[in-house]
């Protein structure tokens, strides 16, 4: 059975963004963090998103800028299978993405049976 884990950027005081909604602090990386991120991106599992995070990620990772800034991470993000849970998202144009509109628990249970580890990104 597949393992479901979460990869979440969070400040020490429990915030995802500053008071203005800026998340740039979460993207500042030293060499150790960059190596860790690149290692995770080539992991061979499935990425799991909610709509908001998915839209943010899909607006960046398939771009030439992402390929230039973080080529290994961009390649991994674009190649991995992705599932986005949303009742409002009608379709996806990011490669290897499935939009799941049904019951989250039932769909995750089904995906866990595929024996491909999954990571929720947030």
Mean pLDDT: 83
The computed structural class is alpha/beta
Strand content: 15-25%
Number of helices: 5
Number of DSSP strand runs: 5
As a percent range, the share of helical residues equals 25-40%
Compressed to H and E, one letter per element, the order equals EHEHHHEEHE
Topology:
Elements: E1 4-7, H1 31-41, E2 46-50, H2 51-60, H3 64-69, H4 71-79, E3 82-85, E4 97-100, H5 104-112, E5 118-121
Parallel strand pairs: 1-5, 2-3, 2-5, 3-4
Structural notes for this entry:
With 122 residues, this protein is α/β, with parallel strands linked by helices. Helix content is 37%, strand content 17%. It is built from 5 helices and 5 strands. It has a 5-stranded parallel sheet. Helix 1 (31-41) runs parallel beside helix 4. The model has no long low-confidence stretch (mean pLDDT 83).
Question: Could you name the key traits of this structure?
Answer:
122 residues; alpha/beta; 5-stranded parallel beta sheet
What's a concise summary of this model?
With 122 residues, the chain is an alpha/beta fold.
